[in-house]
Amino acid sequence: MKALTFHGKRDVRVETVPDPIIEQPTDVVIKVTSTGLCGSDLHLYEVLGPFIGEGDILGHEPMGIVEAVGNAITELKVGDRVVVPFNISCGHCWMCDHGLQSQCETTQVRDQGMGAALFGYTKLYGEVPGGQAEFLRVPQAQYGPIKVPDGPPDDRFLFLSDVLPTAWQAVEYAQLPPEGSVVVIGLGPIGEMATRIAQQRGARLVIGLDLVPDRLVRAHAHGVHTLDVNDTPDIVEAVRELTGGRGPDAVIDAVGMEAHGATGAAIAQKLTGLLPDAVARRLMQTAGIDRLSVLNLAIELVRRGGTISLSGVYGGTADPLNMLQLFDKQVTLKMGQANVRRWIDDLMPLLEGDGDPLGVESFATHHLPLTEAPAAYETFQKKQDGAFKVVFRP
Ligand SMILES: NC(=O)c1ccc[n+]([C@@H]2O[C@H](COP(=O)([O-])OP(=O)(O)OC[C@H]3O[C@@H](n4cnc5c(N)ncnc54)[C@H](O)[C@@H]3O)[C@@H](O)[C@H]2O)c1
Ligand SMILES: [Zn+2]
Ligand SMILES: [Zn+2]
After folding, report:
1. From the CA of 284, how far away is ligand 3's center (Å)?
2. Buried b (16+ CB within 10 A) or exposed e, 360-378
3. pLDDT level of residue 47 (50, 70, 90 thresholds)
4. What are 160-169's pLDDT values in tens digits?
5. How far apart are CA 310 and CA 307, in angstroms?
6. Which end of the chain is more exposed for a tag (fewer CB within 10 A), N or C?
7. Gap from CA of 99 to ligand 3 centroid (Å)
8. Structure confidence by residue, pLDDT tens digits, 295-331
9. What share of the chain is helix, strand, coil (3-state, %, to 5)?
10. Is residue 283 within 6 Å of ligand 1 at its C-beta?
11. Of all protein residues, whose CA lies closest to atom 8 belonging to ligand 1?
12. Ligand 1: distance of its center to the CA of 210 in Å?
């Protein structure tokens, strides 16, 4: 089959690799019909290379048709249409029982000290072959895959794999009071979907921050009060003015470790890119490598007693944080990989009706064959050509 494979920093290729097969009785194999490109893939493309094997298949936002089922699978049959969550969870351990599927105790990557295994997401997360491919082996298929009805186009359901549950969790973790106010930093797919969900769930004021003009326009078009961080001399003051002088009830960080405009850490990230993988891995696991400008902005923005919800991915282990303000302002911090399965029952009603309240069918900007994936990674990273959400159709 054809698959998108990793070969080094900003070097991904479409290659022919062996078809996946059933390896465990609880596996299924799907034929992938649509598969997303995510901001998380950009971290792999740019800074997480030392944790990825040469030739590893990337991608964690697939859906498709069940092609083969393992002996132990009674929940699915050949021909079913399914969306595959980016985290692999068993559905019967203590963590899964408690709605913490991204910490699943059956798939936890214990030798790396990490949570549940993820598709296509480094040795830290189990080095499981990913979904930017023609076929995908899905472990723990008794629980993971979400069955969806035939009929509507793939985009109606595809974002259940990651964007929707991640954005839903971001808003849930923001603990907004009724008619609350929230600032979303970063208006990529995750941040922008979080603004839509916050509106849907009754937020009174949703403010969105970014620096890419077409992303600001996009969010503004559905009622988000947008601020261009490059164009606003004093963001903190501007947000305070919009929130009665107090600051918002919550701030969602949907940017993560590669925030623009954070020079020190940017240099550190570049340096690790020049070191041999083994040395770089050690350095990244022992030194702070995140660009923290956005997180520190979130700490400054949030009102006293408010909540910061982090969905942007961070990976440094010695990041200097503004503990003084975090403590003095009595801030609650909630974060983590999305527990995808946990939020599906909340999301389904918003996808199944005739309307499309979250606008999922017009969410993606690009639908491309998988062969164009290497160019699409570059365009998406550089935020050119209006690339906001790219979906491959293998
Ligand atoms: N927690 C999870 O389960 C989970 C799941 C999916 C994605 N993520 C993470 O969420 C983050 C966003 O993902 P995405 O797909 O939306 O990616 P993206 O890269 O398209 O979005 C990031 C946005 O942040 C903006 N940005 C960068 N620096 C900024 C700054 N200083 N101030 C304001 N805006 C800034 C960028 O212009 C961009 O629009 C990534 O870190 C990704 O890894 C987490
Ligand atoms: Zn993703
Ligand atoms: Zn589990």
Report:
1. 28
2. beebbbbebebeebbebbe
3. confident
4. 999 999 999 9
5. 10
6. N
7. 9
8. 999 999 999 999 999 998 887 776 778 899 999 999 9
9. 35, 20, 45
10. no
11. 312
12. 10
